[in-house]
Amino acid sequence: MAELYNWKAKTYAEIRPSYPPQLFEFIASHTPSHLLAWDVGTGSGQAARSLARFYKNVIATDASRKPLEFASELPNVQYKHTSLTMSIAEVEQKIAPKSSLDLVTAAQAVHWFDLPSFYQQVKWVLKKPHGVIAAWCYTEPKVNSSVDAVFQQFYTDDSWPFWDSKVRKVVDDEYRTIDFPFEPVDGLDDTGPFEFVAERGMDLDQFFAYITSWSAYQTAKVEGIELLRKDVIERFECAWNEDKNDQKVVKFPVHLKIGRVGNI
Question: For the domain that residue 140 is a member of, what is the CATH number?
Answer without folding.
Answer: 3.40.50.150
